[in-house]
Design brief:
Elements: E1 4-5, E2 17-23, E3 31-32, E4 36-43, E5 46-50, E6 53-57, E7 62-65, E8 71-75, E9 86-93, H1 109-117, E10 122-124, H2 128-141, H3 145-161, E11 164-166, H4 182-193, H5 200-207, H6 211-222, H7 226-244, H8 249-255, H9 261-272, H10 276-281
Parallel strand pairs: 1-3
Antiparallel strand pairs: 2-9, 4-7, 4-9, 5-6, 5-8, 7-10, 10-11
Helix pairs in contact: 1-3, 2-3, 5-6
Length: 282
C-alpha cells in the first residue's frame, strides 16, 4: 500500500477536529498525519492496519492512534455477509494544539504517558470505553473554550481507564518513516489560508521551490494536486457550516474561499455528489 500524508482540516476558528462520518464505506486510504486520532466505530466492520499490526474492527470499538502512525480502516464490501454502512466519530488534535508546553505541566503527566503509549496505537477496552464515547459526543456539541476543557477531560478519562491493548509491536517506531521537513509547513500554510486566495507560486515561495518543482513534490507527497487538497479542505469546511449554521449557501461558498457561487456548486457536487442545499436538507 502507498502511504499518503493526509491533510486534516479543523474548521474555521478551531484548534482541533471533531468529525462525524456516515457513508457506504470508510474512504480514507492508507495514510498518516501529525495529529493524534481518537476513533469511535459506530457502524460497520472490516480490516484494520495500524503500523505493523493487522487485525479487524467492528461496531462499538474505540481506538486511539498516535501522531504520524500509519493506519487504514477497510470495510467489508456492502452486500457481503455482516456488512453495514460505515459510521464513525473521529477527534484529531496535534500535541501542540494549545501550546508547546501544555502536556509538560505536572497535572497532565497521566496524559503525557497516554500520548506516549499511543505511538503503537491503542484499542480501548473495559467499562471506561463507553464513558469516553459519551464525552466524545459532548465535545462534538461544545463551542468556544468549552471545547478545550472537554478535550482535556476526555483525555483524562481515557488515561484513567488503563484498559487498552497496544496494537503495533513494541519495537515499532513511526518516526523512522521518511518525512520531508517541508510538508508540515506547506500543510499549515494551506490550513491557515484556504479561505483566501491560494496560488501555487505563493505556496512554492513558502517552500523554497520553483512552481514546477513544487507541483511535482506536492503530488509525490500527497498523491493529489495542490488545488485538489485546497478544495478538499474548503468543501469539508462548507459541509460543517451547512450542518451547523443557517448561513446562506452563497455566503458559505465565499467564506470557504470559492470565488463564485457557480464554482462552489460545481466543486461541491463533484465531491459530495449533491448540491449544497440538498446536503443541508437531507
Amino acid at each position: 500500500m502507498y502511504l499518503e500524508l493526509e491533510p486534516v482540516s479543523y474548521g474555521l476558528g478551531r484548534s482541533f477536529a471533531s468529525i462525524v462520518f456516515e457513508g457506504g464505506k470508510f474512504v480514507c486510504p492508507y495514510h498518516r498525519h501529525p495529529e493524534f486520532e481518537l476513533v469511535a466505530i459506530d457502524g460497520s466492520s472490516g480490516r484494520l492496519v495500524v503500523g505493523d499490526y493487522t487485525g479487524t474492527f467492528r461496531q462499538g470499538e474505540l481506538f486511539f492512534l498516535g501522531e504520524n502512525l500509519p493506519h487504514i480502516f477497510q470495510n467489508l464490501p456492502l452486500g457481503s455477509r455482516s456488512s453495514q454502512p460505515a459510521r464513525s466519530h473521529v477527534i484529531q488534535f496535534r500535541r501542540d494544539f494549545a501550546g508547546d508546553r501544555l502536556f509538560c505541566v505536572p497535572e497532565l503527566a497521566p496524559l503525557q504517558r497516554l500520548l506516549h503509549a499511543a505511538r503503537r496505537g491503542l484499542k480501548i477496552t473495559g467499562a471506561g470505553r463507553e464513558r469516553v464515547r459519551v464525552q466524545m459526543r459532548a465535545l462534538h456539541e461544545a463551542r468556544g473554550p468549552k471545547r478545550i476543557t472537554q478535550l482535556l477531560e476526555l483525555l483524562g478519562e481515557l488515561a484513567a481507564t488503563k484498559s487498552f491493548k497496544p496494537l503495533a509491536g513494541e519495537t515499532y517506531d513511526p518516526s523512522i518513516i521518511p518525512a520531508d521537513g517541508r510538508m508540515p509547513g506547506i500543510m499549515a500554510h494551506i490550513q491557515e489560508n484556504f479561505t483566501n486566495t491560494l496560488t501555487v507560486p505563493q505556496a512554492a515561495r513558502k517552500a523554497g521551490l520553483t512552481p514546477n518543482a513544487f507541483c511535482r513534490y506536492f503530488k509525490q507527497q500527497t498523491r493529489r494536486t495542490f488545488t485538489e487538497v485546497v478544495n478538499e479542505m474548503r468543501i469539508r469546511e462548507a459541509c460543517r457550516l451547512l450542518g451547523e449554521t443557517r448561513a446562506p449557501v452563497i455566503e458559505i461558498g465565499y467564506a470557504c474561499g470559492f470565488g463564485s457561487l457557480a464554482r462552489f456548486h460545481a466543486e461541491f457536487k463533484k465531491r459530495i455528489k449533491t448540491s449544497p442545499l440538498r446536503f443541508r436538507n437531507r
